Amino acid sequence: MTTVRTACYHCGETCNNKTITLDNKLFCCDGCKLVYGMLHEHGLCQYYQLNDKPGVSQRIQVRRNKFAFLEDAQIQQQLIQFRNDTQTHITFYIPHIHCSSCLWLLEHLHRLDAGIQRSTVNFVRKEVQVVFLQAQTSLRKVVELLAAVGYEPYISLQDLQHKKQRSVDRSLIYQLGVAGFCFGNIMLLSFPEYFSGPEGMDMTLFRYLNLLLSLPVFFYSAQVFFRSAWKGIMHGFLNIDVPVALAIVVTFARSLADVLSAGGPGYFDAMTGIVFLMLTGRILQEKTYQGLSFDRDYTAYFPVAVTVTSNEKETPVALPDIKTGQTLRIHHNELIPADSILVKGEALIDYSFVTGESAPVRRSIGEIIYAGGWQLGGNIEVLTIREVAGSYLTSLWNRQELQQAADKPASFIHLLGRNFTAVVLLVAVVTAAWWAFCDPARIWPSVTAILIVACPCALLLAASFTNGHILRILSRHRLYLRNAGIIERLANTDHIVFDKTGTLTGRHGAEVVFYGSPLTEEERQQVAAVAAQSTHPLSRMVRACCGESSLPVTDVGSHTGQGISGSVQGVRIRLGNAAFTGAGAEGDFAGSVVYLAVNGQVRGRFSVRNRYRPGIRQLFGQLQEHYALSLLSGDHNGEAATLQELMGPAAALRFSQQPQDKLDYVQQLQAKGQRVLMIGDGLNDAGALKQSHTGLSLTEDSNNFTPASDGILEAGQLPLLPRFIQLCRANRRIILASFIISLAYNITGLFFAVQGTLSPLTAAILMPSSSISIILLTWGLSEWAGRRLRQALPAMMDKDQLPGLRE
Amino acid sequence: MSVIILLLGASLTVGLIFLAAFIWSVKSGQFEDDYSPARRILFDDAPATGEKQQNAITKQ
Predict the structure, then answer these.
(1) Closest CB from B27, B32, B44 relative to A124
(2) What is residue B42's three-state secondary structure?
(3) CA of B13 to nearest chain A CA: how many angstroms apart?
């Protein structure tokens, strides 16, 4: 039976009941209806015309006093960008910005609040800059307005601690502009020289103009190559920029000599052309993803302020100002910012991001609660025992930050460039020796011509254009690498280490499954009714599996720590631990388990089972053949059998790993000479991600907080991992292929150069044509190599058939 | 042939103007966001008061 799915008009989620309506439109919850009402009232319904269902679900309401800390003047001062007598400027990061409706609504905020003068969206960075009049509205009101329309800004401790550096390094682009201008004009001004007949006019004017135009290129645009070459020489490492810089200098010197001595027009257009193209390649290679950050640390994860209670008064205090011995009130769904002791309330804490444990942890009064977990229960009060920066987790983080990153090996193009340069120098020396014998006048023209023509610029071009293109293809498939060097490191992987919670399992990684002969509908209702009598989290688990029921229950008995019992429709039901229900020995069932006994007979048990991402089985099947696999999990080993079967008998599985254990394991592997790729998603993987040759963080949507890593991969694309690695391997082959083809041009040029008869026209034709053909070739080969990524994945089974699946 | 000098001067000047415009536009951050400007020009500037009044009327 197919059910017709009614989608909420605002956010597109399924409407469970059809009762929430307004204006003949259906909504999934009152929150969505409220947003629609507000927009409708202010005449902003074009929001819904521009895109279908553009909102985000408002089921979880924002707590009323969540932004009370924004009234504090000192906190305000640290967050805003500018303030004068009338105006305040502030920029918010709003993760939910994703379509043109968002853009439209956020730029029309002035219609919702008269105190807002204007708001400008930077879509790529997902930011809004709001200018408001502090006399008419306040920072807190602006933020609450944004939250009310569904665009809650994300304000974290990081915003408080340092002003985000806004200026992107644009100097390369200016250099490119200048180089392009000069190159174009020099090319035009060289035509008279090349194409004039034997009785041509006096070319001095053009030559000197060319000289003038080449000066900005040599002294300004080529800076980046000279600096890089200089750094390489200083460190004793001859990178590929050294021969490139040498070639540029030699070309300039030779051309200068030619023009000043009226001996020829010089090779200015070849020189500026090559600088222009290499700068283009460099810019394409340094692509940055403005919406993402590869360097988040714990401050991006913590909120700005927390509520401190003292003498019955509650005040929001900024996190850096929290001292030990203060009592904090932590609300539902709020982060615990500092190590503390539970003083009041029921603590049920989700540490999955921080330690990898998939099940929430219960703590009782007097126990220590570590910072970094999310409180899932109601409000609690805690007494701080350490400051925020000194908490157990942040100290772990800082310690890992200090660790020396393993020596990352240099790219193969440097080695190739060095070999190439050696060969060229050899040819130059031999030529010089030859002409010294036969005709010493030809030494200078031939040697300089050799160094001009045989520039490894082709290699540099091939490398940078290919890297840039591969980065682009990968980002199209939602793998964002930090820089081009990662491509090669990813290609060299031979051992892949996975984290479990959040990486192999989805965000809703656990599902409750009933093990035992299937429950009838009647039994299900009865069990649900009894479970509803208790607010214990385990009964929540049972309800998740059985649904809700309003059958009357009599004779309810609640035994703390044991279970609950009740009579429904004449049937006696017991839910609880093994002893309470008479199920016998606990056995090997780790994790949260609730046994069910009906009329004294044990019927089965409710247990939490990991729900793995779709496509994982295929992924491991493909990976097993080429890579060694490991799993490091912070969770208990309840799923060991399942995982071993998925990952193959050769895979190493380790459970209950602390963050330090993960780091140590990676180090051990590297000591054995393995090149490790680590895939993780939480703070507990941060050390291992940094230590591995390549670290990829997984994210459900790129707004989530990922620990510092070399690349960010969207979770749904994980099954494509083998193809990503294949593409990175192809990168090297493409570069080599292009380079070898460019050798043909080099040899042609050398043919003229060794004779000392390299005319500027020949150089002017050879250099650009070799460059352009390389660019076209690398583009074509990269696209061709990327075609495998576009193919559909092999047909996946509808439900991953995992062992132990019942019902 | 002296007209060549005039032409050269003119073309270089025009080129320099465009170079200056390029540098200015990059500096002023016009190329920071390449998504929004394309969408912004397609938005309609509906008169806010008209729609608001209409909604106020229908609410009653």
Answers:
(1) B32
(2) coil
(3) 11
Q: What's the distance, CA A133 to chain centroid?
A: 36
> Do residue A566 and residue A585 come from a single domain?
yes
What does pTM read for this prediction? 0.82
Please check whether residues A197 and A154 belong to one and the same domain. Answer: no
A178 and A278 both lie in a single domain: yes
Three-class SS of residue A557? Answer: strand
Residue A383 falls within a domain, yes or no? no
pLDDT tens digit string along A748-805? Answer: 888 888 887 888 888 888 888 888 899 999 999 999 998 888 877 665 544 444 433 3
What ipTM describes this predicted complex? 0.81
- Indicate whether A662 and A719 sit together in one domain: yes
A45 shares a domain with A132: no
Distance from CA of B3 to the nearest CA of A (A): 13
**Which residues, other chains included, contact B6 with Cβ-Cβ below 8 Å and sequence gap of 6+?**
none
For chain A, what is the domain count? Answer: 5
Q: With beta carbons under 8 A apart, name residues in chain A contacting B27.
A: 170
**Span A25-34, pLDDT tens digits:** 888 888 888 8
* Partner-chain contact A100 B16, CB within 8 Å: no
Residue pairs between chains A and B whose CB atoms are closer than 8 Å = 67
Residue A630 lies in a domain: yes
What are the residues of chain A with a beta carbon less than 8 Å away from any beta carbon of chain B?
40-43, 45-46, 100, 103-104, 107, 111, 121-125, 168, 170, 173-174, 177-178, 181, 184-185, 188-189, 201, 205, 209, 290
Within 8 A of A173 by CB-CB distance, chain B residues are: 26
Which of A286, A307, A327 is where one domain is finished?
Answer: A286
Residues A538 and A606 both lie in one domain: yes
Three-state SS for A449-514 is HHHHHCCCHHHHHHHHHHHHHHHHHHHHCCEEECCCHHHHHHHCCCEEEEECCCCCEEEEEEEEEE
